[in-house]
Every structure is written in C-alpha cells, then in structure tokens.
Amino acid sequence: MSLYGVLRSGVSGMNAQSNKLGTVAENIQNSSTTGYKRASTEFSSLILPSSEGNYNSGSVTSRVRYTIADQGPIAYTTSPSDLAISGNGFFVVTDPGGSPYLTRAGNFVKDGRTGNLVNAYGFTLMGYKLGSGAVNPSLNSLDGVEPVNMSSFAMQASGSTKGTFKGNLPDGAPVVALPAVSKQSSLQVYDKVGNPIKIDIALSKISDTQWSISVANGSSADPLTGTTSMTLTFDADGQLTGPSVLNFGIPGGEPFALDMAGMTQLAGEYNVTGEANGNAPSAVKDVEFASDGTVYAVYEDGTRVGAYRIPLANVSSPDNLSPRAGNVYETTAQSGGYQVGFPEMSGFGSIASGALEGSNVDIGTELTAMIEAQTSYTANSKVFQTGSELLDVLMNLKR
C-alpha cells in the first residue's frame, strides 16, 4: 500500500465523518422545528483495483438521506389554523413566485396583507374552492388549486325557501265562519338580501274535522304571491290527512314551502312551533377545519359554509424528495410524481386542527451518532498523521 493511499484514506475518512457531524448538527438544531425530518449520512466503500503484491487503498463515499416518510409526534396547540397530518401525505404550498412544494409544516396563520393562510416560512396553503358541484381533483396534477384565502369569507345573507309549522289544534275549539279567526301565529322569514319579513298565520276552525289556514305579509303592504290559503283535514283520530304543504312567494325573496305535516287535532291546548331557513346578513366569526380537509366559514348566526377543501399530495418514494429551504420538498425523478387526493381517502392520512407535527429527531440518538463520528474522525486523523510522518521519513532517506 502506497503512502499516497494512506494519506488519501485518512482524508477521505475525515471528510466522510465531517459530513456525518454536519447532519447531526443540523438535526440537533431542528429538533424543535415543526415538521422537520431527520437527516442521516450513509457510507459506502470506493474500492480501487489492486494487484497481488500491491494494495491500492480506496476511499469512502457518503450520501445524505432524509427520513421524510417517518411520522413525527403530534402536539396540540391553541390555534385552530395549526394543522397536522396523521398518516401519509403532504400539504401543497406555493412560494411567493407561485412554485408548488410539499410540506408537513402546518403552522399556518392568516396573512394580514393578502388574507391567505401562510406558514411560518412564508409558504401559502393551497386548496380547492368549493362551489355548487363536487370537487374532483386530478389524480396526478395540482391543476385547480388556489390559495386558501380567509378574506374571501364575506358577509352573507340567504333567502328563506322552506319552513315547518306543526303542533296541536284544540279539538274543542268552536266552529267559526270565515273570515273569523280561531287562532293566530307568526313566522319570521328572510328575503334574498336578508331583510326580515313576518308571515302572519291565521287558523280558523270551519268544521269538526277541518281548519282553514291562511298566510299574509305582516311586515309591509306587499302581498304574498301564489297560494296563500288551504284547508287542513283531520281524521277521527285527530291525524292530518290530505295535502299539508302551502306554497307561496315572499316579496323580494324565493318561493317558499310551508310544511304542516306535523299538525294534529287533539283534545288539548293550542300549542304550535315553527321554523324557517334563511338568515339576515351575517359576518364570519370563525373558521373550522374538518379532518377530511374541508374548511368551513362559521358565521355569527351559527351557519357553517364549506369554502375550501385542502388536498394532500404524496409521491411513490417520499424519502427521495429533494429538501429545500423553508422545510419544504420538491419532487425528483427518484421520488416519482404527484399523487393527489383528499384526507381520509385510501392511502392518505387525516388532518387534525389545532395541532402540529413535531420533528422526528431523537436527541439521544443524535448525541450517540455525534460521539461515534467524533471517534471515527479522530481515528482517521491519526491515520493521516501517521502517513504524513512516514512520508517525512521517506523524504529524509532520499536526502
């Protein structure tokens, strides 16, 4: 074995162990970084051809690998926009230039300037905007995703379209001649822009088994349109028979269906309840994230409206993704292309709101690896030092 080979082996070993110490230092620095995945250095021998009487020393090559597929611990927080993935998949995010990346770092907050959800590294969370139809993402493409924007949740009002009016009409009430009224109630509904309208409901007992019901606009002189009255007929057991839905139009609103299927005529007090859909103008009070990735806008009146659905993306070999600054990854030829789906679908994990995935670094393991690398580095430096001393002896002999 030549002295040159000895020196080369020593230098190669020191360089390899220096790389290992570098990954250990990176891991320790990021042991508290959200979604960070541990780096490790793997070694392989580089063997040179040798003859029977002369050994040519090779060297050591090193490669840095990331354990991206390993799940980190889940820790719960007080912020509902903190998101953690339990299982397979990555959040789809973009940088300020619009380039897509994958990440497990779900510490998202609302950007006060744009209204987008961005994580601590400035990457914007992407999702599919929900409309009237179902969202069908491309299985191998990120086409159609857009920034999840909290400012897009504006005030909303919805017109009433249906309601119920049910309860008991007293069997012992005296029969009256129209237009006399036996009992009266009211129901509040809303037009298309959220104006409240009171619907007056008049009930008149016109025979032993029949009641006449009529509705009128109790808020203004604008009349209701369509059918505004009908007759309710009851059998001998006091149960409603025949038609039970009154269809009419609300001024400035939608066609409205008042369902009275739950009405009875029994020997009891007049006791009725009613409700209707629709709401007055209401602002967004909160945002909720479901485990299936649906983002709901919660309004002041309690209404929950699905606004976005967050997809998850995965690749065939996550450990071969290429890490980039900001705790994000991009695909490579070795990792394979995007596989896109929604949380809780086959092959994808679920999303937990108010939680973060921690680093998968174990400090004890890293300290052990650091001691091993330091010992190997010292041993290789001794090899280099010995070779250098032998080289000095050889040079002195030539003199």
From TrEMBL:
GO terms for cellular component: bacterial-type flagellum basal body; bacterial-type flagellum hook; cytosol. Belongs to the flagella basal body rod proteins family. It is found in: Bacterial flagellum basal body. Gene3D superfamilies: Flagellar hook protein FlgE (2.60.98.20). GO terms for biological process: bacterial-type flagellum-dependent swarming motility. This is Flagellar hook protein FlgE. Residues 353-397 form the Flagellar basal-body/hook protein C-terminal domain. Residues 7-37 form the Flagellar basal body rod protein N-terminal domain. Residues 84-134 form the Flagellar hook protein FlgE/F/G-like D1 domain. Residues 182-273 form the Flagellar hook protein FlgE D2 domain. A flexible structure which links the flagellar filament to the drive apparatus in the basal body. It comes from the Bacteria. Its main location: other. Keywords: Bacterial flagellum, Cell projection, Cilium, Flagellum.
